[in-house]
Write a structure and sequence with these properties.
This protein has 96 residues and is mainly alpha-helical. The protein has one domain. Helices cover 67% and strands 0% of the residues. It has four helices and no strands. It is elongated and about 60 Å long.
Length: 96
């Protein structure tokens, strides 16, 4: 519980993962005779949404950690990492 208080994003990640797993289980049960829904299985959509949310949070945190590792390795330099590839002016204007 302390970890969730320290990092609320971790709590959202755990909740999202739990909901995704729960909806996957409900989806599997809805296509078996255990949960007869008449052939309708809407739970895969919810499972997919929460899976995408989990992936987004995980990848964003992974990028943040990589950025911190990059800063630690490179030290306190004033070099900026370009956000996009800078093309020569004549290529940007379309005059090749």
């Amino acid at each position: 519980m302390e970890l969730i208080w320290a990092s609320p994003r971790f709590g959202v990640l755990l909740l999202s993962m739990s909901l995704s797993i729960a909806f996957v289980i409900l989806d599997v049960l809805s296509v078996t005779p255990v949960l007869d829904m008449g052939g309708i299985n809407p739970f895969w959509k919810f499972a997919f949404v929460f899976k995408c949310l989990t992936d987004t949070i995980f990848l964003d945190d992974f990028k943040t950690v990589l950025d911190k590792l990059w800063e630690r390795k490179m030290g306190p330099s004033n070099l900026e990492i370009p956000s996009k590839l800078e093309l020569p002016q004549h290529i940007e204007d379309g005059k090749v």
